[in-house]
Amino acid sequence: MTARKLCTFTRFTGDKMNTVLAGPFVEPQKDCWLYAGVIGANGYGLVRTEEGRYRVAHRVVYEGEVGPIPEGLQIDHLCRVRRCINPTHLEAVTPRENTRRSYEYPSNRVAYLNKLKTHCPKGHPYNEENTRIARMWGAPHRTQRRCRACKAQTMKAYYKLHPRKDRRLKATT
User: Fold this and answer.
1) Residue 45 in 3-state DSSP?
2) C-alpha closest to that of 65 among 38, 45, 89, 100
3) Any idea what the CATH number is for the domain that residue 55 is in?
4) Are 65 and 48 within 8 A, CB to CB?
5) What range does the domain containing 96 cover?
6) Which distant-in-sequence residues (6+ apart) come within 8 Å of 90 by Cβ?
7) What is the pLDDT along the chain (173 residues), one digit of tens a residue?
8) What is the spatial distance between Cα 151 and Cα 43, in angstroms, rounded to a whole number?
9) Number of structural domains in the chain
């Protein structure tokens, strides 16, 4: 398969890909094919479908050149370049493995440092009884740890300042 064929893709008609854009330029140091189209705020290339929705370019290339992405797996960039769409640099892995690999790179250092924390900022342990896993607002695929003891303290202080009023209806005669 030639590099030119792999580089050209974009719009969909049903399940078939039609060639619309000429492909990316090559970064010589890593042999990456950098997507030359729209780049999202998170650094990944975006491809527009006929329905007007955007899909991530590296997933489109993977599906077109390697095959469907198995359920529950993510595409990992082995080269760590988000704009890269070279299918030889893409691998389907579990979310856990993808995150584990990303710890080695400064771009995801925050996730790595948060994972190392064993106690909340107020000193309560992050253990099974005291920790609640919550979905992040606006990003349902991402989660964060929440301390149950801190939440209980916050709610106790709130109700002390805002006591509940008696809501029962008084009988009128």
Assistant:
1) strand
2) 89
3) 3.90.75
4) no
5) 3-116
6) 58, 61, 62, 66, 75, 76, 77, 78, 84
7) 334 333 344 444 433 343 333 455 556 566 888 888 888 888 898 988 888 888 999 998 899 889 999 999 999 998 888 888 889 999 999 988 887 787 666 556 677 778 789 999 999 999 999 999 888 777 777 788 999 999 999 999 998 888 876 544 455 54
8) 35
9) 1
